[in-house]
Amino acid sequence: FLPLDSTTLHSASPLIMKTFAFLPPAAPATAAASSRSSFLPANPRQAHAAPAGSDVLLRRHAAPTAVVAQPSPAKLSKVEGIKTRSNGLRYPLNEELKNSEPNITDESVQIMKFHGSYQQDDREKRFPGQPKAWQFMLRLKMPAGEMPANMYLTLDKLSEQYGNHTLRATTRSAWQMHGILKSDLKSVFGSIMDSGGSCVGACGDINRNIVATPAPFVHKPYQYARHYSKMLAEVFAPQTGAFSEIWLDGEKAASLEYWKNDINMNTVKKIMSTENGNGTIFKDHIEPIYGDVYLPRKFKMGVTVPGDNSIDIYIQDIGVVVITSPTGMLEGFNVTVGGGLGRTHKKESTFARAADHLGFVRADKFFDLMKSIIAAQRDHGNRENRANSRLKYTIHRMGIDKFRELVESYLGEKVEPWRELPKWEYKDWLGWHDQGDGLKFLGLFIENGRIKDDGDMRLKSAFRFLCQSLKLDMVVTPNQNVIFRNIAPNQVKAVEAILAEHGVKLPSEYHRNRVLSMACPALPLCGLAVTEAERVMPAIVDRVTALCEKVGVDVPIHMRMTGCPNGCARPYMAELGFVGSGPDAYQIWAGGCPNQTHLAWPLYDKVKDSALEAVFEPILVLYRDSKNPGESFGDFCSRVGKEELVRVSEPALLNSAEKAPPVEAPVAKAASVVPASKPASAAPLNGASKSSPVLALSTATRMRLALTAQKMGVSVSELANKVLTEALSPVSVTSETFQLLQDAAVKSSQSTDAVAEDILTKFLNAH
Question: Rounded distance, CA 762 to CA 767, Å?
Fold first, then answer.
């Protein structure tokens, strides 16, 4: 903290003086910093002087408006201190990468996010007393989701050489690569950068990857959407030299990032560094937009055209809609603000939020408005509690009208009213389409975004062949799918033949429910997941689809699933959302709509996987019998409301719970299996008699146990007892096995079930 006396303060730059423009005349300076809710006196340009002889504290690392009075400043979150000490996103990561440890510390983990990587460990390889199986996930920066064929081939090769042999398309139109060891990070980062790619800006408290409508049409509005996405990606890119210093030893990358060839970087630099006198930038700072501590939390933008809601525009921090004249000339942009889905179970101060309409901005003022919104969040966002630091909470706290006034004070003029738009429609752009220039594009459904070779479906090999032989560039969509573009009409049959030879289906060969579904990776790599998502979602979709067929419902339903409440796969906008709330259990959300224009709501807080049919069948019957003509399932749920859906489904859910075997016994007996004194086949693993404690294992582990037991000619219970006993002790008495499980659970700070799960999974992996 830098102490300033009142005289120095009065002679300071307009950036510092701007602080007092948002304090009411009679309010002490602490009001702005502690509550951050007192904004805009009658004259927002008025500067209020500090009392004579008084001192104030200016946060050296904070934005221009972050001025507080003695005796003590507001308490910042731990991550704010980490960013402040990082020396431009360098320390301590640059030091820790040099040691031989397989992982980095929590402080470096926070800095590593800015570089585009998350540290993970494989939970299926966790064993008591053993170190974690540390690895890293890298996420690429790909404005508008575009990637040339040669860059994809580089990723494909790196994933085979250093990763887990898969790639994953994210819900923000980017590729992720998993399984990178710490010792290989420099090689992988360096190869990506030298090939014209980047991971910078894919993670961290900055503007993340810009999504755009993925359709590669040549029509003017779509061209503008792609162009402005790339411009935004660079205007709000971090400028620190830490990235090249750490990954390329300070050298320049061998190739320019490929999207920069499509924009004027001199124009970008001018936009980034131009100050309008209202405090939008830090003049002469290496980070003119972000300053020393960047944003309070991650920030997401999306760009689309009227009617095309392929980007889920209402979940973006900033949503941008291209507005053109009837002749295709760019007039300006409609702008939404304050969307976001991350939340925490049982913490009502966190919530999903759909964006508000901020207004319209002329094309010549577009970047000024974008900088003003970023500056408003940078200076007034919550830096004390990261759970409430996204832009949605700033706007929720202030209200959209006051936030608009705040943005206008940075902009220096009024934001124009929102222009009317045609109705939004969900667009996935799958199948064959004409681009408008004589060429075609093909959208392919990628189940949950995973690119891999799996049995007869050799998707990864097919993509490699298409990029090598036909040199097809691609677009990763915001819905985890992939579009191959610029396909000549005489190449159509060749493309379809290559896909067929590799067992890759066209979108029309899938049930529509599968094509509409999305899930996050969840277990085993995501540290936040509490249950499965990607690995079970196909089965869940099939079960719901079978139920629809059973009761005579023939409409597609948007279903999305996440393994935790952070909402990466956007379940809170789906017609049916599954949000992990415990092992094999999900919070059920309903009432979203097919076109993703309003939020769903929680129907049940926790439903076991085995009870899903019991919940959904009476609801689907009610929909079948009571829907309006043409009414979607989600709109029906929204219309009839939660109370009615609970009324028809709760009796079946309770009846299902009564019939179900115990899922978790009392603590004293929580993890035992069938006693050895009884025949091993006397009771199933999680269906023992009331006197026998049971194991709460995941569906995936139970299924693998059953298959392995069948191969070995033993019962599931006998196999489980044998594996657990041999793993924990030479004593083959089930009661002792249970005691050892409890001891191991205490030592590893895990549940007894989790210890058993780890040991059994290790055995199954070996077999």
Answer: 9
pLDDT in tens, 686-740: 333 334 556 767 656 766 676 676 667 677 777 877 777 666 654 343 767 777 8
Residues in a beta bridge with 585: 582, 608
Residues facing residue 361 across a β-bridge = 333
Distance CA 311, CA 303 (A): 8
Q: Is-cis flag, bond preceding 71, omega within 30? A: yes
Cβ count near 194 (within 10 Å): 16
Other beta carbons within 10 angstroms of residue 458's beta carbon come to: 17
* Residue 17: φ, ψ to 5°: -60, -25
Spatial contact of 461 and 453, defined as CB atoms under 8 Å apart? yes
DSSP 25-43: TTS-THHHHHT------SS
| Number of neighbours of residue 638 by Cβ within 10 angstroms | 20
Angstrom distance (rounded) from CA 631 to CA 613: 22
**Coil, strand or helix at 376:** helix
Q: How far apart are CA 257 and CA 198, in angstroms?
A: 7
Nearest to 286 by CA among 247, 252, 243: 243
In angstroms, rounded to a whole number, what is the distance separating the alpha carbons of residues 575 and 35? Answer: 37
Q: Among 352, 343, 355, 351, which residue's Cα sits nearest to residue 314?
A: 355
CB of 318 closer than 8 Å to CB of 336: yes
Q: Are 120 and 136 in contact (CB under 8 A)?
A: yes
pLDDT at 511 over 70: yes
pTM summary value: 0.80
Stated as kind and residue range, the H or E segment containing 362 is strand 356-362
Calpha distance 3→56 (Å, rounded) = 6
Spatial distance between the Cα atoms of 533 and 268, rounded to a whole number of angstroms: 40
Q: CA 520, CA 542: separation in Å to the nearest integer? A: 17
pLDDT per residue over 449-465, tens digit each? 999 999 999 999 999 99
Residues in the chain: 767
In this structure, which amino acid lies at residue 348? Answer: E
Beta-bridged to residue 57, according to DSSP, are 3, 68
